[in-house]
Amino acid sequence: MRSPNIVPDFTGLRVVVVGDLIADRYLYARPTRVSREAPVLVLRYEREAIGSGGAANVARNLWALGARTLLVGAVGRDAEGRELLRQLDADGIDTRGVAAVPSWTTPTKTRILGAERGRTVHQILRIDREPEQALDPGVRRELCGAVRDLAGSVDAVLVSDYGYDLVGGEVAAAVRAVQAAGAKVVVDPRRTLDPFRGVDAITPNLSELAYMAGVVDEPRTFEEIALAARAVLDRLAPEHLLVTLANRGMALFTRELADGVRVAASGPGEVVDVSGAGDTAAAAFTLALAAGLPGPEAMRLANAAAGVVVLETGAAVCPLSKLRSALPQAPWPEDSLERRRAARG
To answer: What is the gyration radius of the CA atoms in the chain, in angstroms?
Structure first.
């Protein structure tokens, strides 16, 4: 019997990511004094960098865990789009499904990070640059055609929706064609939901769960979370509903586990930055399901991977080596006492 403390071999898996590509720009600065012009800090510029966000970060996490990764989405023909493609190509991610669109602006999140020397940098301010125009319908059709062409040749599809006009009914129809050919389908949602009814997994955070369940306020207690989750199971019928709970860990709901099973957050508890942790969790959960792990084990693995990336500044990836080190120390889901005893021998 496979030990639940051993990470499966993901190198044979081929996964396509469909969604919104985002450029993460980081400006690093050091606070020096309070301005005489206004009651604000003056920061001394030190350096800047561009990283991968949104679906691009999901793809990099899949790649870091060993999967052969294809990416379908759009960037603008701007500096941010060119840099995103350069980095993804350098990693070995297949970007032939990424369209460079002249009329499109690459969504860019600029984070200003600062701290005194010798201290961990923290986010001070974020400025978002977003497309002012809709994505050309012809481009969307082209991208959906690229997804359909992958039917029968990929093990999983991960839809990464950040609300930038790509993910919708057309993408859902294309993804269903790939699902019908045997691929696992996981949706990391924002607002488009109903077209994805019956997928293998949905991975919302608490605010997304509230929206999906039609609840005004975020559920606070686990009982409220479970009530919202059951409403989503009834409405969208996913096989797995994985809810990320920030520093409270994760919860998994299925038809058989309608009351849910939860796991405490993994890691030492000294969170540096949660940016991109949901991307990491979705990527790891997708690979675990595609590798044949049952839902609670897949959640534990995803939780361990997320616990790795929150220790780093910015949207980071969880390399396979770090996941292998983190998993044996990761907490167990509540219903896994028998499996824990088996692992200990």
So the answer is: 20
If one counts every other C-beta atom within 10 angstroms of the C-beta of residue 131, the result is 18
Told to judge if 24 belongs to the known catalytic residues of this protein, a careful annotator would answer no
pLDDT exceeds 80 at position 74: yes
**Phi, psi for 287 (deg, rounded to 5):** -65, -40
Q: Tell me, what DSSP letter sits at residue 197?
A: T
* Burial profile 40-57: b = 16 or more Cβ within 10 angstroms, e = fewer: eeebeeeeeebbbbbbbb
Per-domain boundaries in the chain = 14-23+52-107+130-335
- Residues of the chain with pLDDT > 70, as a percent, come to 93
**What is the arithmetic mean of pLDDT over 80-103?**
96
C-alpha–C-alpha distance, residues 242 and 254, integer Å: 9
What DSSP state is assigned to residue 118?
A: T
Of 193, 196, 204, 160, residue with least CA distance to 176: 196
User: Sign of the CA dihedral 101, 102, 103, 104?
Assistant: positive
Q: What is the pLDDT of residues 137-150, one digit of tens each?
A: 999 999 999 999 99
Average pLDDT over residues 273-292: 90
The confidence score (pLDDT) of residue 121 equals 79
How far is residue 240's CA from residue 251's CA, in Å, rounded to a whole number?
Answer: 10
Q: What pLDDT, on a 0 to 100 scale, did the predictor assign at position 26?
A: 93
CATH superfamily name and code, 14-23+52-107+130-335:
Ribokinase (3.40.1190.20)
Given the residues 194, 217, 279, 335, the one annotated as active site: 279
**Which residues are within 8 A (CB) of 122 and not within 5 positions of it... i.e. 6 or more apart?**
113, 114, 115, 273
**pLDDT for 341:** 45
Both tokens of residue 81? 């789009």
